[in-house]
Amino acid sequence: MKSEDRYPKKSEHIRLDNYVRRDVIKALLGFGAASLLPLGLWQWVKSSSYTNNVLAPLRKTLEFNEKLTSKLLSDSHLAPTFPKSQAERKVRFNGAVGLTEPLEKDYKIKVESGENKFEITLDDLKKLPKQEIIFEFKCIEGWSQIQHWGGVRFVDVMNHYKIGQKDAENLFEYVGMETPDDKYYVGIDMPSAVHPQTILAYEMNGKPLLKKHGSPLRLIIPVKYGYKSLKRIGVIKFSDTRPKDYWALFGYDYFAGL
Ligand SMILES: Nc1nc2c(c(=O)[nH]1)N[C@H]1C(S)=C(S)[C@@H](COP(=O)(O)O)O[C@H]1N2
Ligand SMILES: [Mo]
Fold it and tell me: What backbone phi and psi angles, to 5 degrees, belong to 213?
């Protein structure tokens, strides 16, 4: 095994006392205003009507995303992107909670959307359109890096598997993701989950993810601080109640918006 691609050691785990700093939390509150943008979008998505057998709220979102990404509309909701040449080759590693156990051989992602429970394989996901993004990944500890990730848009996954829909009119309010061992977990508000830049990533710099970066599959959510980008997705669950969130339990902002 290459030293680069090993499982992280226990000693590399995050030290909690380094993290819970009141001044950082206060600074976070300043970002509150930014969360109004996705909320506005969300109200709009929610008010759309249901037609045919497709997820109507989601279809509107998809159309809206198309416009956003084709720049017909202002791209103020989008995290800035960069050319590939600027992507960091030595990507930083941070946090190994939930990554220390060997991965099961027949890795599958468990999905729960209301009564609908099933499993998805990585190969299934790779059949969906590939989406790459080069953006500035920001960790709340104070470092940032331009990084290049590849995978599938979460909104495409929702649409393909017809998940995330509570009833004919509405999507669930949240999606929760967990590592297979349930030691790290995040909760994401639906507007951010269906954001066009939110992807389930299986590649970094054009190659399969390394274990320490969350292989085989991780979340990449550019509109939020790094602690929401869960590595090694084992479970995806939709709900109307706030899913448990690892760092929110330590006093960090639940939404972690940028
Ligand atoms: N499973 C898991 N995912 C995680 C973490 C973790 O400890 N365990 N740390 C988070 C934090 S705080 C950051 S900044 C990013 C770091 O991702 P990287 O190691 O690929 O740089 O992963 C996030 N996702
Ligand atoms: Mo982080």
Answer: -95, 5
82 & 22 share domain: no
Cα of 231 vs centre of ligand 1, distance in Å, is: 6
- Whether 75 and 34 map to the same domain: the answer is no
Indicate which atom in ligand 1 lies nearest the CA of residue 95.
Answer: 7
Residues with CB under 6 A from ligand 1: 14, 92-99, 139, 179, 184, 213, 226-227, 229-232
**First vs last Cα of the chain: how many Å apart?**
37
pLDDT, tens digit, 9 for 90 and up, residues 131-152: 999 999 999 999 999 999 999 9
Q: What domain range is 185 assigned to?
A: 57-250
Asked if residue 223 lies in contact with residue 79, where contact means CB atoms within 8 angstroms, the answer is: yes
Q: What is the pTM of this model?
A: 0.82
Query: Same domain for 151 and 201?
Result: yes
